[in-house]
Automatic annotation (TrEMBL), chain A:
PROSITE patterns: PR55_1, PR55_2. One of its GO terms (cellular component) is protein phosphatase type 2A complex. It comes from Aquila chrysaetos chrysaetos. One of its GO terms (molecular function) is protein phosphatase regulator activity. This is Serine/threonine-protein phosphatase 2A 55 kDa regulatory subunit B. The keyword Repeat applies. Belongs to the phosphatase 2A regulatory subunit B family. InterPro entries: PP2A_PR55 (IPR000009), PP2A_PR55_CS (IPR018067), WD40/YVTN_repeat-like_dom_sf (IPR015943), WD40_repeat_dom_sf (IPR036322), WD40_rpt (IPR001680). PANTHER family: PROTEIN PHOSPHATASE PP2A REGULATORY SUBUNIT B. Keywords: Repeat, WD repeat. The gene is PPP2R2A. It comes from the Eukaryota.
Length: 428, 254
């Protein structure tokens, strides 16, 4: 497995491959976006695909202060979503708690030289010294990657934005906060349409919030949103302008034997992702990953336990706030494997076909570059076997919340607190 | 009994979380605080539904928040009942124009009509969702303006006129479009006397201290500047804030 780690500066808050997989964007708590680019395949080194190197770094969001409410607005990047590439430039949406920005990332590898009125360093020449005229020409220069903000979508969210999702029409996108979902047009920044509003008339009656939202990959009229109560609602924008009434409600009845003080917290969904096919969707709650068939609302078709050994530790995890960690999940390109993170820098993969699962660790101490990752095992109770790790020795500060899978190849990006690991399949 | 102890511990942890949520950057996290309030409600229900709900929580399990009720109760019972005319007014900030008692059952986040653990002085009337902190013959005001209990404790013997004046003015309608978490805030009001113990010290930089130390409530009352001066913590609109005195400002503005 090839491993490349980068960026120690700040806590990574989001990771996203673009549609081709050539670019990988990360956002961090400091409001920065770093984009990695895959090297072109090296024909002589057939044992590995190209490595990812830093392509562009820019400051996407700055901390702001809302004077009206006396609230500081964090610059942390909550989500990045790429637009499909239409021309030479790349576009992505990045968002913090309140403002979404459309960034254009373009390359410049030529520059004009030979101006008549300007020196090469930019100083203006005295026109009276110009005796001949020449036509400026483009000459090659070192590649420069520029990021410029093209649109700023602001002032549409009272609550904290948790999701953005680009529609399959590639013209509109949605942004979701705790209580509302808005629909935007990529070209229009001064207005958005509210399509979901679950704010109660009396805030004291609030019982659930929106935790994630995503457009269907193929149906431009369909989107889903998950809630803190563990439900997912599928909405059809053709039905009405305000999609408060869902078309489908996905909910699994709670297992009464598992009831505890923390049942509600651990059923809160932290991420929802459609499969590439659009037939399934995956949800992540605190202890498990569930796969739902869009045609069946009353229960998921598959459930995978991520770290069931934590169920008996919920009180401690509540105390140290870990129970509020929002883990993300992702599909591989063929929808056959799903992946999500856990603690101790472990991440888990579940093969839907073979029903096998594996636990791997993202850490430099335990894995040299170009070595194959060794599967890990957590010992829940009883006698700990060799190479197993007991639950009590897990490091809960080392959590993997964000993972991403290359859309076409078996390359994965795994973010620990402030390092990014990129692993790929061992090629024979 | 074990469940009771655990429930009690969870209640105090939850209150600590709600309290420390005030100081965090980026403003109130609605989702997290909602979850915490749900846990708090569950734990509270368990705690109160166990037979033999004691007026005072077992000493082994208590931190300062739990220590509040007895002293508070004493303060109340010591003859400083809140001026009755304040009750209706105190209902103001939460539900404009509503009677302080009426909305109580709805406002009580746990939705139950049992006395809360702060019911030091012989538990309030069980048929009301108000959580009386004191044997005050007068109903339960401490939850309205938790400021009251703290203020009372701090200045035993002096009726607090200032809050009454400010509280009379209900918040303008339509000011709800805000990150106001009334549910959790009224939660704080229910545990008013417990909570004010947490606020008796300078809030900043003392996130977990109240849970660790066993100090009795102090008699200092914060200046308005103290409560309002911490940037990033005021989550209510100005008009609402104006109606409350510094104590409630501090609590509400988490």
């Amino acid at each position: 497995m090839t491993e490349c780690s980068a960026r120690f500066a700040d806590i990574i808050s989001t990771v996203e491959f673009n549609h081709s997989g050539e670019l990988l964007a990360t956002g961090d708590k400091g409001g920065r976006v770093v984009i990695f680019q895959q090297e072109q395949e090296n024909k002589t080194q057939s044992h590995s695909r190209g490595e990812y190197n830093v392509y562009s770094t820019f400051q996407s969001h700055e901390p702001e202060f809302d004077y009206l409410k006396s609230l500081e607005i964090e610059e942390k990047i909550n989500k990045i979503r790429w637009l499909p590439q239409k021309n030479a430039a790349q576009f992505l949406l990045s968002t913090n708690d309140k403002t979404i920005k459309l960034w254009k990332i373009s390359e410049r590898d030529k520059r004009p030289e030979g101006y008549n009125l300007k020196e090469e360093d930019g100083r203006y020449r005295d026109p009276t010294t110009v005796t001949t005229l020449r036509v400026p020409v483009f000459r090659p220069m070192d590649l420069m990657v520029e990021a410029s903000p093209r649109r700023i979508f602001a002032n549409a969210h009272t609550y904290h934005i948790n999701s953005i999702s680009i529609n399959s029409d590639y013209e509109t996108y949605l942004s979701a906060d705790d209580l509302r979902i808005n629909l935007w047009h990529l070209e229009i920044t001064d207005r958005s349409f509210n399509i979901v509003d679950i704010k109660p008339a009396n805030m004291e009656e609030l019982t659930e919030v929106i935790t994630a939202a995503e457009f269907h990959p193929n149906s431009c009229n369909t989107f889903v949103y998950s809630s803190s109560k563990g439900t997912i609602r599928l909405c059809d924008m053709r039905a009405s302008a305000l999609c408060d009434r869902h078309s489908k409600l996905f909910e699994e009845p709670e297992d009464p034997s598992n009831r505890s003080f923390f049942s509600e917290i651990i059923s809160s969904i932290s991420d929802v992702k459609f499969s590439h096919s659009g037939r399934y969707m995956m949800t992540r709650d605190y202890l498990s990953v569930k796969i739902w068939d869009l045609n069946m609302e009353n229960r998921p078709v598959e459930t995978y336990q991520v770290h069931e050994y934590l169920r008996s530790k919920l009180c401690s995890l509540y105390e140290n706030d870990c129970i509020f960690d929002k883990f993300e999940c992702c599909w591989n390109g063929s929808d056959s494997i799903v992946m999500t993170g856990s603690y101790n820098n472990f991440f888990r993969m579940f093969d839907r076909n073979t029903k096998r699962d594996i636990t791997l660790e993202a850490s430099r101490e335990n894995n040299k570059p170009r070595t194959v990752l060794k599967p890990r095992k957590v010992c829940a109770s009883g006698k700990r076997k060799k190479d197993e790790i007991s639950v009590d020795s897990l490091d809960f500060n080392k959590k993997i919340l964000h993972t991403a899978w290359h859309p076409k190849e078996n390359i994965i990006a795994v973010a620990t607190t402030n390092n990014l690991y990129i692993f790929q399949d061992k090629m024979n | 009994m074990e469940f009771k102890l655990e429930a009690h511990r969870i209640v105090s942890i939850s209150l600590g979380k709600i309290y420390s949520a005030r100081g965090q950057r980026g403003g109130l996290k609605l989702h997290k605080n909602l979850l915490v309030s749900l846990v708090l409600r569950s734990a509270r229900q368990v705690y109160l539904s166990e037979p033999g709900c004691p007026p005072e929580p077992p000493p082994a399990a208590c931190g300062p928040p739990e220590e509040e009720p007895p002293p508070c109760g004493t303060a109340w019972a010591a003859g400083e009942p809140p001026p009755p005319q304040d009750e209706a007014a105190r209902g103001g900030p939460r539900l404009p124009g509503a009677d302080c008692e009426g909305p109580r059952p709805r406002r009580c986040c746990c939705g139950c009509s049992c006395c809360c653990c702060a019911a030091a002085a012989g538990g309030g009337e069980a048929n009301r969702a108000d959580c009386a902190t004191a044997g005050a013959a007068a109903p339960p005001p401490p939850h309205c303006p938790r400021k009251r209990s703290a203020g009372e404790r701090g200045q035993a013997g002096s009726p607090v006129k200032k809050p009454r004046r400010e509280v009379e003015e209900p918040p303008p309608p339509g000011e709800q479009e805000d990150m106001e978490t009334g549910n959790v805030a009224s939660l704080i009001s229910i545990f008013g006397s417990s909570f004010s113990g947490l606020l008796s010290k300078e809030p900043k930089g003392r996130r977990r201290a109240p849970l660790d130390s066993g100090e009795a409530p102090t008699t200092t009352s914060p200046s308005p500047a103290e409560a309002a001066a911490e940037p990033g913590q005021i989550c209510c609109d100005e008009p609402v804030l104006r109606t409350l005195n510094p104590w409630s400002t501090a609590i509400v503005a988490f």
